[in-house]
């Protein structure tokens, strides 16, 4: 029996010979016929060897089928086609080697050869179905071809969710995470740890350890425990040095388990705490993460502009590998902001998010021009002779959250303008001409804004004796968020 | 004739230059500034929270028990033996292992809570106590090393044996310079503070190109020597000389393709630019009186810790990426009460002033300030414990550091030690975790910053290091 199996497994090797040889014979035969070429007698030998190899493959195939493991039906149809191939090859060999083509009707030759090809492919196809599965061939076929083959069209990906409330707790939140990070190793074909995470029922059924999901208790659920371990831990998942799931993804799964691991249900049906809402919104891609870059993607800064900026005295830095916006620093040039530098700066206006113009004798007119830098987030203007009026233009910058006016000439008039800023979070006014009382009043009226103002008393103030400066700053800071 | 080594060097050099120019970030690093100013990474991996670091290294191992880690139980159990179950399997140094008794010693100095965060700070640090709401204390630091040199080397380079690059060198190698006129890594050691020796390899470049090594400013009136042109040599002659020297070096590079020759050229050019940039940064005459008052009277005396703190702020204003201060003398094996008081007096006001000063100038937003030593000290007395005097031995099991600014949460304490101040009981932070976090704040992923040397890739954090997510703002 073992020996039979040993030989039987050579079937998968030998079967390629009749495919090749008979294919060649049939095609060459047709070729001679249609192009009226001299038929070589070598073709007879080719037919014979095709016939013999087909017979050999059939014998080995029979041996293989004895080992079992294949459905009888599938073996039967493969076997029948194989016999047909051998029969057809036998007829061809006898006919073609005993009668020259001229004596045979062209239709007969054509029919026999076509039939041989058809039988060959069919046998191969049914054989392959047994090893790869019957859907293998059309798994990735485009929908029109699938429908021709009588298969269902591909499942459509779920439409992207646009509102948190419309999302399905499993299909939109949990399943995409599992699909993306787990299913490659935990599916029906390759179920590591006997765990298959491709369908809800199977997820709940669990794997080897049994308690994969304990509805209501994340800490007792093996799946949650494994993904939240230290990534150096032996039992950490995803295994094999793959990057851990993001904090948001882990929190989403924990939330789902705590809710009892439901199979479906819209998020609107759940009682969501603000924190859960945030986590879920991030998982669904409806909200950017805490550390995500706040602006839309931008193409890289053109080289010519970068060069121009560098020549003008700027230090040019890209924010990060993925964020193509730039960080510009003119302060280290330690010279006045030149006309040339200003021109270069305005050419890069869409790219600049962080800008340091400290100590560069920046004028009010130049500050006004900065209002064209609409993506500006951080602006350092300290130690420049600028006055309150210069700030008017900046108030329209939608993203400006950090503004440094340390040691500038801005006075109480600046406060009214600063009230109009849209996104300001950090404001530095120490050693400017803003008076303590005006600032105090302003801070009180601004109570609803989340601005963190840092301002020591101006150094020329009489109250500014070394003893109470700066540990005793009256409005050193004020945080309301 | 070319020998085998020359051939390999030439072809390898040519090939790698060609290959590197194909890597987008490398091309960017070269082209954007023309000075390779964006480092080997071209740009940070992630947007940086901190653009520079000021590391106030308190060398010798300051006692956590007299500064920030308040342990009243030790006062209650004053003189009693350190329980064996607390000590566990902790190995002691040869200095106290021979003692017949290990008597617990409480802090002789009182503690109070400060600020809205309610952080405990001892009476030795009145200035630091006023800024606790700007600080993030990590009370669960622990290290692998129990002796000074390996412990400092471990903190600075990620490995206890000499030869690896220092953190400042790694960061400059990764990110490049933000100011071509000054070195990106500057080191200052307080003058007149003896103690355990420091070696220049602590700020060395290790196997990285030597252009990234820390440049030490001398403590005193002339922080960098020979900045002035020698007598009888005017500027034009000097420039001429430098130009010819460069040509010679370039010819040498064309022949040998040794990257260290490039470093040499860059260092000469840096030195030339430092002739004007260093006097500018070290001349305090543009600082008003209130600044000196803020940092304390020592700040008028160049080379002291206070003056170095002020200089650190001036360097930060000029975008120096890594500013490393060392203050020695925290190694109180005996006479701790007097010794630590003296140390605190010399450093407390200036450390706090630096944070305050950076904050009001808007610089604390993207400057990370770090305060800490290489390990902690034992909760038992080394030598005789009396009512007014005791000593403490080295203790790697737990110590306290603080950080401020640069993307770290202000006004918080992270991690806890046990009531004996001996073992970490909550949220331990290993030296590699601290290093991973520091790189993260600078926008660098510690697992991705590597350098291949002697056949393997090296990292600051070796194969360890977890970012302390809870302290990130």
Automatic annotation (TrEMBL), chain B:
It comes from the Bacteria. InterPro entries: Alkaline_phosphatase_core_sf, DUF1501, TAT_signal. Keywords: Signal. It holds the Pfam family DUF1501. The keyword Signal applies. The keyword Nuclease does not apply. This is DUF1501 domain-containing protein.
């Amino acid at each position: 029996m073992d020996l039979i199996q040993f030989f039987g497994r050579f079937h998968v090797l030998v079967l390629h010979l009749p495919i090749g040889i008979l294919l060649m014979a049939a095609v060459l035969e047709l070729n001679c016929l249609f192009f009226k070429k001299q038929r070589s007698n070598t073709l007879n030998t080719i037919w014979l060897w095709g016939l013999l190899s087909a017979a050999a493959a059939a014998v080995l195939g029979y041996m293989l089928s004895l080992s079992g493991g294949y459905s009888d039906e599938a073996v039967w149809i493969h076997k029948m086609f194989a016999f047909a191939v051998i029969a057809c090859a036998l007829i061809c060999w006898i006919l073609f080697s005993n009668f020259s083509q001229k004596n045979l009707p062209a239709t007969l030759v054509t029919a026999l050869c076509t039939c041989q090809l058809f039988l060959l492919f069919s046998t191969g196809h049914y054989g392959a179905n047994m090893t790869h599965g019957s859907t293998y061939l059309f798994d990735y076929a485009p929908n029109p071809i699938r429908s021709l083959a009588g298969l269902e069209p591909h499942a459509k990906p779920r439409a992207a969710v646009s509102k948190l409330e419309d999302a399905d707790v499993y299909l939109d939140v949990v399943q995409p995470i599992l699909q993306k990070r787990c299913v490659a190793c935990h599916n029906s074909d390759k179920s590591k740890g006997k765990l298959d995470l491709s369908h809800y029922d199977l997820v709940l059924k669990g794997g080897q350890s049994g308690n994969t999901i304990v509805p209501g208790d994340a800490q007792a659920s093996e799946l949650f425990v494994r993904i939240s371990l230290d990534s150096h831990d032996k039992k950490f998942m995803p295994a094999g040095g793959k990057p851990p799931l993001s904090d948001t993804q882990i929190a989403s799964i924990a939330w789902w388990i705590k809710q009892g691991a439901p199979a479906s249900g819209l998020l609107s049906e759940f009682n969501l705490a603000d924190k859960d809402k945030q986590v879920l919104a991030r998982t669904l891609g409806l909200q950017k993460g805490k550390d995500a870059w706040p602006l839309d993607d931008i193409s890289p800064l053109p080289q010519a502009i970068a060069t121009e900026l560098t020549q003008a005295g700027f230090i040019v830095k890209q924010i990060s590998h993925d964020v193509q916006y730039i960080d510009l620093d003119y302060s280290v040039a330690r010279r006045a902001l030149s006309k040339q530098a200003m021109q270069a700066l305005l050419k890069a206006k869409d790219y600049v998010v962080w800008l340091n113009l400290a100590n560069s004798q920046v004028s009010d007119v130049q500050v006004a021009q900065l209002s064209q830098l609409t993506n500006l987030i951080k602006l350092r203007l300290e130690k420049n002779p600028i006055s309150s009026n210069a700030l008017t233009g900046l108030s329209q910058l939608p993203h400006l959250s950090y503004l440094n006016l340390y040691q500038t000439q801005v006075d109480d008039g600046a406060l009214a303008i600063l009230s109009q800023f849209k996104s300001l979070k950090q404001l530095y006014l120490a050693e400017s001409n803003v008076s303590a009382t005006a600032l105090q009043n302003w801070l009180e009226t601004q109570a609803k804004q989340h601005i963190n103002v840092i301002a020591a008393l101006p150094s020329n103030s009489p109250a500014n004796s070394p003893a109470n400066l700066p540990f005793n700053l009256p409005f050193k800071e004020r945080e309301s968020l | 004739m070319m020998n085998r080594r020359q051939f390999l060097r030439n072809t390898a050099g040519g090939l790698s230059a060609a290959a590197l120019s194909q890597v987008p970030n490398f091309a960017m690093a070269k082209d954007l500034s023309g000075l390779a100013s964006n480092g080997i990474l071209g740009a940070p991996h992630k947007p940086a929270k901190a653009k520079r670091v000021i590391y106030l290294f308190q060398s010798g191992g300051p006692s956590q028990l007299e500064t920030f880690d308040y342990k009243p139980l030790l006062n209650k159990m004053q003189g009693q033996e350190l329980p064996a179950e607390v000590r566990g399997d902790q190995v002691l140094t040869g200095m106290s292992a021979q003692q017949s008794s290990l008597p617990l010693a409480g802090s002789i100095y009182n503690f109070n809570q400060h600020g809205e965060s309610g952080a405990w700070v001892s009476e030795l640090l009145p200035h630091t106590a006023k800024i606790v709401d700007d600080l993030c204390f990590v009370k669960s630091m622990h290290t692998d090393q129990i002796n000074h040199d390996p412990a400092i080397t471990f903190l600075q380079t990620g490995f206890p044996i000499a030869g690896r690059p220092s953190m400042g060198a790694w960061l400059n190698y990764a990110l490049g310079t933000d100011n071509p006129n000054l070195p990106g890594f500057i080191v200052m050691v307080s003058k007149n503070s003896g103690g355990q020796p420091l070696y220049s390899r602590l700020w060395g470049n290790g196997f990285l190109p030597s252009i990234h090594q820390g440049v030490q400013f001398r403590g005193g009136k002339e922080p960098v020597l020979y900045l002035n042109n020698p007598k009888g040599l005017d500027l034009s002659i000097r420039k001429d000389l430098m130009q010819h020297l460069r040509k010679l070096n370039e010819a040498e590079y064309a022949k040998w393709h040794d990257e260290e020759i490039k470093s040499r050229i860059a260092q000469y050019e840096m030195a030339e630019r430092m002739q004007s940039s260093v006097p500018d940064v070290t001349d305090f005459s543009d600082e008003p009186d209130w600044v000196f008052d803020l940092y304390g009277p020592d700040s008028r005396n160049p080379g002291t810790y206070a003056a170095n703190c002020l200089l650190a702020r001036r360097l930060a204003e000029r975008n120096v990426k890594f500013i490393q201060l060392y203050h020695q003398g925290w190694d109180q094996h005996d006479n701790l009460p007097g010794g630590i008081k003296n140390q605190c007096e010399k450093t407390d006001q200036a450390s706090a002033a630096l944070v305050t000063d950076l904050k009001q100038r808007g610089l604390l937003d993207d400057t990370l300030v770090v305060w800490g030593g290489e390990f902690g000290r034992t909760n038992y007395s080394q030598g005789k414990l009396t009512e007014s005097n005791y000593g403490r031995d080295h203790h790697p099991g737990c110590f306290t550091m603080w950080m401020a600014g640069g993307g770290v949460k202000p006004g918080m304490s992270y991690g806890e030690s046990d009531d004996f101040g001996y073992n970490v009981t909550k949220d331990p932070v290993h030296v590699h975790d601290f290093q991973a976090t520091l790189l993260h704040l600078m926008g660098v992923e510690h697992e991705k910053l590597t350098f291949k040397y002697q056949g393997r890739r090296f990292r600051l954090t070796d194969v360890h290091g977890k970012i302390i997510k809870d302290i990130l703002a």
